[in-house]
Protein: PepSY domain-containing protein
Amino acid sequence: MTNHIYPNEFEPKANRPFGFRLAFTCHKGLMRAILLALFLFSAPPALAQGLTETDFSPLPLHEAMRIVGERYQGRLIAARLAQPNAHERGLGVELVEELRLLTPARNLLKIRLDARDGRFLEVAGRGQIEALKK
Structure:
């Protein structure tokens, strides 16, 4: 049976990927070499940014919760890692833990901590004074 797409060849087998043959199969060795070179010569993201093993890892969430819980009453409803704003970068902050705390008076506090050492950078929201632990 002759094939209109692949003259002088057999019909593509059903077990081939997607049921068709790629036209550049004769360059398979070259493609492998190119992919291997790209893989070997591309730097991992941490090395590309100049990070080393001595750089910090962010403060664990349970530690951030403990630090906030020592100062404020309420329930944690959200937490995330965020990039520092311009002012925080000026203070030498590399990464920020951003927590949202629901106070007993049902106010929402947005708390930003330095992810390296847990120092308070910003507390925003109503009812901050009332939410402070005595």
Summary: The two ends are 88 Å apart (CA to CA). The first strand starts at residue 75 and ends at 82. The chain is about 30% helix and 20% strand. The beta strands are 75-82, 96-102, 108-114, 120-124.
